[in-house]
Write a structure and sequence with these properties.
Elements (H helix, E strand, L loop, with lengths): L2 H14 L4 H8 L3 H9 L6 H11 L3 H6 L8 H45 L6 H20 L5 H30 L8 E5 L5 E5 L4 E5 L7 E5 L16 H4 L1 H4 L10 H10 L7 E6 L4 E6 L11 H16 L5 E6 L2 E6 H7 L3 H4 E2 L2 E2 L1 H9 L5 H8 L3 E3 L1
Parallel strand pairs: 6-7
Antiparallel strand pairs: 1-2, 2-3, 3-4, 5-6, 7-8, 8-11, 9-10
Helix pairs in contact: 1-3, 2-3, 6-7, 7-8, 12-16
Keywords: DNA-binding, Membrane, Transmembrane, Transmembrane helix
Protein name: HTH cro/C1-type domain-containing protein
């Protein structure tokens, strides 16, 4: 059906009847804007309105659908043609309405997915629940649009679309976990342990994530893609491993202490730097002095200061080949340690540093993990000479 032609025909016959758009609308129970849209050809009257409209305009239904006057001898032939056009129009309108519903369902699903990631924190499982709901709605919209297919094909295509959507979200979630160091949004289990500090384990179908030192300044994440760690075997350090672990600080390895920038960057990456400090280099005697801006007992829960000084000293001696001593100054107290004391008395030091090479695995075992053993820390800290 030609909506422009029909609209113009409605306008002509309305004027013949001496009716305004508002008057015709009142008689039909619609607004004058609706009449205007019909006459402009922007919209077609609903099927339920065709008969009342033709009666008000005193034209036949056949003429209304044709958009012109029809002679009596042509009436039968034109009626069949108009009927076919009306059926086609109805079918198209139903399809369009069906499509609008499907699109609306998919849009709602997309909005729910967007809100699930933007509103809820990764620690909350609600983001996962709502994103799955959004994917189900998107899939439902796709399923509705495939009604021309057989039921089996619709189910297969719908299931494939759902898995593709969920797979994309899980992949994006993994990128967020690995790049931004956060808990996974998609997980089936969350377990909190209080063994070596607070550890939270997040279990995903494809990998596990450990949040070590959770909710502390030294928090860090370990992504276990092989699912090889448990709470008793996952590498745990009292410090932020992502900042001061051997794989991060080995970049500052040098044969000479004279590079102030390198020494500064090294101690900035090591524990206790968060307390604020300045440093001096004794080039003549190959030593370094670190002046911290706090007392030695400040924030010293669980021997944190002693652990920091031991870790910093072993790391610095291992990385800077000609460094001979380090003095740590706090408000009111100083601690001095020499390379000789460390090399002769620190357990397994020569497995950590073998000639010019640092064994990263041995460092993890004999330095990093040992910081969790209080008796070990107390024994090694006795090597430091306290002054003041």
């Amino acid at each position: 059906m030609d909506s422009k032609k029909i609209g113009a025909f409605i306008a002509v016959n309305r004027k013949k009847k001496g009716l305004t758009q508002e008057q015709l609308g009142e008689r039909l129970g619609v607004t004058n804007k609706t009449i205007s849209r019909w006459e402009n050809g922007n919209y077609m009257p609903d099927l339920s309105m065709l008969e009342p409209l033709s009666k008000e305009l005193e034209i036949t239904l056949n003429e209304l659908l044709a958009g012109e006057e029809i002679r009596e001898e042509e009436s039968a032939a034109r009626a069949e043609k108009n009927l076919i056009s009306a059926i086609d129009y109805s079918v198209k309108k139903i399809k369009n309405e069906h499509k609008k519903i499907s699109v609306c369902i998919m849009i709602v699903g997309i909005l729910i997915c967007i809100f699930s990631f933007s509103i809820f924190e990764p620690e909350s499982s609600w983001g996962e629940i709502y994103s799955i709901l959004g994917c189900l709605l998107i899939t439902a919209g796709i399923f509705r649009e495939l009604r021309a297919m057989s039921l089996l094909k619709r189910i297969l295509v719908g299931a494939g679309a759902f898995l593709l959507l969920i797979g994309s979200f899980i992949a994006a979630d993994f990128v967020g976990v690995s790049e931004y160091k956060r808990p996974p949004g998609y997980r089936y289990s969350t377990i909190t342990y209080f063994t070596k500090g607070k550890i939270i384990e997040y279990r995903n179908l494809f990998y596990h994530v450990f949040q070590i030192n959770a909710d502390t300044p030294n928090e860090y994440f370990i992504i276990d893609t092989k699912k090889e760690y448990g709470v008793d075997t996952v590498p745990v350090s009292p410090f932020n491993r992502d900042k001061c672990g051997i794989r991060q600080i080995i970049r500052y390895q040098s044969n000479y202490i004279g590079d102030n920038s390198n020494i500064g960057n090294l101690f900035h990456a090591l524990p206790l730097s968060e307390r604020g400090y300045v440093f001096e280099i004794d080039s003549e005697n190959c030593g370094a002095t670190i002046d911290y801006h706090t007392t030695d007992w400040y924030g010293n829960e669980d021997l944190y200061t002693e652990k920091g000084l031991i870790y910093n000293s072993v790391s610095a001696f291992a990385l800077i080949r000609n460094l001979e001593y380090i003095r740590y100054n706090f408000s009111g107290s100083s601690y001095v340690i020499t390379r000789k004391e460390v090399e002769q008395n620190y357990p397994e030091y020569h497995q950590v540093v073998n000639g010019q090479k640092i064994d990263e695995e041995a460092f993890d075992e004999y330095v990093e993990s040992k910081m969790n053993e209080d008796e070990f820390v107390k024994t090694v800290f006795a090597l430091f000479e306290k002054q003041g």
